[in-house]
Amino acid sequence: MKVKEILPTLEGLGWLCARDEAGDYFCIININGVQVQVIPSIGKRSDHFRVSLMPSVSTKDFTAAAAFIMGEAGDHEPIIVRNGAPEKIVHFSLGDIVRLSQDAISWASAQDIRKGLADYRSLPTEAKGAMPLRHLAALAIAGDVERLKSYKISFEQGNRLGFVPYIEQDMIERALLIAQDVR
User: Fold this and answer.
1) What are the pLDDT digits (tens) for 98-130?
2) Cα–Cα separations (whole angstroms), residue 28 to 42, 49, 97
3) pLDDT confidence of residue 84
4) 43, 108, 138, 183: which could form a disulfide with 120 (CB 3.0–4.6 Å)?
5) To which H or E segment does residue 25 belong?
6) DSSP-derived secondary structure letter, 33
7) Residues 166, 178, 136, CA angle at the centre, nearest 5°?
């Protein structure tokens, strides 16, 4: 069985499935204001399948803020990700997908979005990868105008505060616009 073959089952359970820019499938469902995304993965081995949905949670506000700050469209910017090992399944069936979907939703419902956002707000400016963007988005939706203004002033003075190269002054300015609007 391939990922493409399980998509109708996920869609039947209420997930909206699509492909990202790299061609990988992902599915999103909204549960009580929380955006849950899964990235299905199926690996065939000689005597079993290795299956994972790799769920993550976010909110529409956080995703929209990150997209606006980045200046690009975005479907899902994760706040919390479950990076577990794939499950080994000998006799893989669509029933397993239903169970894994329910498990992903149950896991997502148990996550503390506020704590995840607080963790992003407390990141150092020297954070790597996607973390600086998430840091700015978390500050923006929290309305932290003061901190974002201090970042803007530092950038204007030539001090990048250790931010990774892709973080530019206009991104901080867009984060500040959101924060001012939140207040």
Assistant:
1) 999 999 999 999 999 999 999 999 999 999 999
2) 18, 23, 15
3) 86
4) 138
5) strand 25-31
6) T
7) 35
Pull the structure tokens for residue 128. Answer: 């790597």
Alpha helices in 32-130 (DSSP H): 60-70, 94-109, 113-121
Q: Is the pLDDT of residue 73 over 90?
A: no
Query: Is residue 80 within 8 Å of 56, Cβ to Cβ?
Result: yes
- What's the rounded Cα separation, in Å, for the pair 94 and 2? 11
| Token digits of residue 59 | 């909110």
Residue matched to tokens 């990988």: 24
Assign 152 a pLDDT band (cuts: 50, 70, 90). Answer: very high
Q: Six-digit token pair at 39?
A: 């990235």
